[in-house]
Specification:
Blueprint (H helix, E strand, L loop, with lengths): L6 E3 L6 E2 L9 E3 L4 E2 L5 H4 L5 H5 L18 E12 L4 E12 L9 E2 L6 E4 L3 E4 L10 E5 L4 E5 L7 E8 L2 E7 L8 E5 L2 E8 L3 E5 L10 E7 L2 E7 L5 E4 L15 E3 L4 E3 L4 E2 L5 E2 L2 E6 L6 E8 L8 E4 L2 E8 L3 E6 L5 E8 L2 E10 L17 E4 L4 E4 L3 E2 L5 E2 L10 E5 L5 E5 L2 E13 L5 E6 L5 E5 L5 E7 L6 E8 L4 E5 L2 E5 L4 E8 L9 E10 L13 E5 L6 E8 L2 E8 L1 E4 L2 E4 L1 E7 L3 E8 L5 E4 L2 E6 L8 H17 L1 H15 L3 H17 L1
Parallel strand pairs: 1-3, 2-4
Antiparallel strand pairs: 5-6, 6-9, 7-10, 8-9, 10-11, 12-13, 12-19, 13-16, 14-15, 14-17, 15-16, 17-18, 20-21, 22-23, 24-25, 25-28, 26-27, 26-29, 27-28, 29-30, 31-32, 33-34, 35-36, 36-37, 37-38, 37-45, 39-40, 40-41, 41-44, 42-43, 44-53, 44-54, 45-52, 46-47, 47-48, 48-54, 49-50, 49-53, 51-52
Helix pairs in contact: 3-5, 4-5
Protein name: EGF-like domain-containing protein
InterPro entries: B-sand_ComC_2nd (IPR057015), ComC_SSD (IPR054484), EGF (IPR000742), EGF-like_comC (IPR053331), EGF_extracell (IPR013111), Ig-like_fold (IPR013783), Ig_E-set (IPR014756), IPT_dom (IPR002909)
Organism: Dictyostelium purpureum
């Protein structure tokens, strides 16, 4: 029984002795020997098959001519098997008939709509290599040799109850999805155990030796192969009457899920719906779109294993189904442009998401078109500027050789409330993640969680340049993880299939949302962030009031915001991609508000079940008008002020003439003359 032998022929060898039950696992031929004792039940109950009986003939067994009934305990299961497939060794789950006393012939003895191909272990494992899709089909399997018929399904579902009767401590359960193996069935009535004595696919009989103290509306549980169903019983009348509390039961007892016994309505888990929780409550969590000329679309999410009247519509076009599983749909769509609604219909249920599909442009645009060809060249395949020597930044508009660039006088501080402050001389920028919103299909807010000041620091490096925060949303199991990293050296990194670059001094923000419980599968999330600049006063030559600008396009991979003050710019780069439940998907960015010194952005996140990841980043750079040294201007202005106050206007006029004379002979005097003339005009 511990080897891979399936057939053993020991016929005509004059062997003496007995056979024990360890031989039940092989197809045994011991004809024409001198063996004695009893033939094991596993063989004896198969003697209605003439070949099996023939293999034990011409011996001295005590029970050769007696008749016995097989105690057959069959199951349908998926077992992983390794085999060759198209010149390649693969391991796949295959449908298998397993159990006790299931026979020694896979071909002539079994009658079923499933084609069994191979006996893996005689009398206990017979497998089928035919493809099989889980569809809740209940199979009838018959064994010709024994005349037995069984009802089985390989798709595991909790036991369903339709009727329970009680008579003198004997309870009979009628329903579906029970088992022929009584060892895997557990029934608890109140705090008492009901001992199972017999079971089939449709009926279980058990003995309740002692009754619980409470006889009315007794909370009970039936468990079959680790799948359980809860129900209520009335045991105050035990003369063969029905004791299942039909008045508070739910249809099919909710397929093993929660029944509200006050209303008789099933409380289905979020992935199921319907009066008995048997219908998939489908949704799409991520989409891999196609270009504007059309093509293959991949949708990931939850679609279940029942797909009655499945239809996928994108915009006003039907997306023709290519492949289908419980978690993925691929389909082909025609040409189009822009954002489109997505509708998935099946099983009488409609799932819809506005503007979820975005046709992708093959030509991506760059921020400010990289200024001009002297500054940089736009890579139209990814929308990233490739800056020329001497220039840097997302649009190549910041001098890279200026000592006051972002890696010079920029200091970043990650604050305990989860915000980040970026200081550059007298200019202070702030980045804050403020709230998480759950939006319904009409983009109306159904729930809002304020995130600021609720963060807990979970990790922090010695320099404070890489800090991780977490928080659990109030009265939920949803966890949000916020990581803020100051880039200490120029880096290249990848996210959601994109290769990106960050300069030294940039701030990389990563946010992940885990196990959010939506009020509806139609709902989505929006994470809101604020970027602003503090209202400080600068009197130097770079002084400039604050202004903001945005570059947000749905069909572009990268979106930007910028806040310009004192010839320094805070850039925020938002990647229109996220990782939803392990799959890359397109997302959109919404402009919530835009004021002179502040921009609020909403990052729209799809309906993700387990996790969503987004990855924006920020940089403070100087623009091309920035003056690295204001001291020279200040010195000349001071000289002029002294001259004006001590000598007077008449003397200044003489000086102007004098300096103008030197202007003809000296380029250095030219600068002084310019400053003096400017000051005279200011004096007037």
């Amino acid at each position: 029984s511990k080897n891979n032998i399936t057939t053993l022929d020991l016929s005509s060898n004059s062997i003496t002795g007995t056979i024990d039950e360890s031989y039940c696992s092989v197809h045994l031929n011991i004809r024409n020997n001198s063996m004695t004792g009893k033939i094991p039940e596993c063989f004896k109950c198969q003697f209605s098959d003439s070949f099996t009986k023939y293999y034990f003939s011409e011996n001295l067994f005590d029970n050769y001519d007696t008749i016995e009934t097989c105690k057959t305990i069959p199951k349908l299961k998926y077992l992983n098997q390794t085999f060759w497939k198209i010149n390649k060794k693969v391991t796949e789950p295959v449908l298998s008939l397993i159990g006790q006393n299931i026979g020694y012939s896979a071909f002539g003895d079994i009658e079923s709509n499933i084609q069994f191909n191979l006996i893996l272990k005689a009398n206990s494992i017979i497998i089928s290599y035919d493809s099989y899709t889980p569809n809740r089909t209940i199979h009838e399997i018959s064994f010709k040799s024994t005349g037995q018929k069984f009802t089985l399904t390989p798709d595991p579902y909790p036991p369903l109850l339709s009727n329970i009767t009680s008579n003198n401590h004997i309870l009979v359960f009628k329903g579906l999805y029970y088992s022929y193996d009584i060892t895997e069935i557990t029934i608890t009535i109140g705090d008492r155990s009901c001992d199972v004595t017999d079971s089939t696919f449709y009926q279980i009989t058990c003995t309740l030796t002692t009754y619980p103290n409470q006889l009315n509306n007794v909370s009970s549980t039936i468990k079959v192969d680790q799948l359980q169903t809860k129900f209520n019983l009335n045991l105050d009348n035990n003369d063969g009457n029905e004791v299942f509390n039909n008045y508070t039961s739910c249809p099919y007892n909710c397929n093993g899920y929660i029944c509200n016994y006050n209303t008789g309505i099933c409380e289905c888990p979020k992935d199921w719906t319907g009066e008995n929780c048997l219908t998939p409550n489908h949704y799409v969590s991520s989409i891999t779109p196609t270009y504007e000329d059309g093509g293959l679309v991949t949708m990931n999410g939850w679609f279940g294993d029942i797909h009655q009247d499945l239809k996928v519509t994108i915009g006003n076009q039907e997306c023709k189904i290519d492949t289908l599983s419980s978690n993925t749909i691929t389909c082909n769509i025609g040409a189009g442009i822009g954002k489109k609604d997505v509708i998935v219909n099946q099983n009488g249920i409609t799932w819809k998401s506005f503007n979820f599909f975005i046709y992708q442009s093959k030509q991506q645009t760059c921020l400010n078109n990289c200024i001009d060809t002297n500054h940089g060249i736009c890579n139209t395949s990814n929308g990233i500027c490739e800056c020329k020597s001497g220039w840097t930044g997302f649009d190549c508009n910041s001098p890279s050789n200026n000592n006051n660039n972002n890696n010079g006088n920029t200091n970043s501080t990650v604050n305990p409330d989860g915000s980040t402050t970026i200081n550059n001389d007298q200019t202070t920028y702030n980045i804050l993640i403020t709230s998480l919103l759950e939006l319904d299909i009409n983009s109306d807010t159904v729930k809002q969680y304020l995130l600021q000041n609720n963060w807990n620091i979970t990790s922090n490096d010695k320099n404070g340049s890489n800090v991780t925060f977490t928080q659990i949303l109030n009265e939920t199991e949803c966890q949000i993880v916020l990581s803020i990293q100051e880039i200490e050296n120029d880096i290249q990194y990848s996210f959601a299939g994109l290769e990106l670059k960050l300069d030294k001094g940039s701030i990389k923000v990563s946010v992940s949302i885990h196990n959010y419980n939506y009020q509806s599968p139609l709902n989505t999330l929006q994470l809101q962030m604020i970027s602003n600049v503090s209202d400080t006063t600068s009197n130097d030559c770079n002084s400039k009031s604050a202004s903001t600008s945005t570059s947000i396009l749905d069909n572009q991979t990268l979106n930007y915001i910028s806040i310009n003050k004192d010839n320094k710019i805070l850039y925020g780069r938002f990647i229109n991609r996220a990782i939803s439940d392990g799959h890359t998907t397109l997302i959109t960015t919404s402009l919530i508000s835009n004021q002179n010194e502040s921009v609020t952005i909403g990052i729209n996140i799809p309906h993700c079940k387990t996790s969503c990841y987004i990855d924006p980043d920020f940089s403070v750079l100087i623009n091309s008008n920035f003056k690295s040294n204001c001291d020279e201007s200040k010195n000349h202005t001071t000289l002029i002020a002294v001259l004006v106050s001590c000598i007077g206007v008449a003397t200044i006029i003489i000086l102007v003439g004098t300096f103008y004379f030197f202007y003809l002979k000296s380029t250095k005097t030219k600068v002084v003359v310019f400053k003096l003339k400017k000051k005279i005009k200011m004096t007037k």
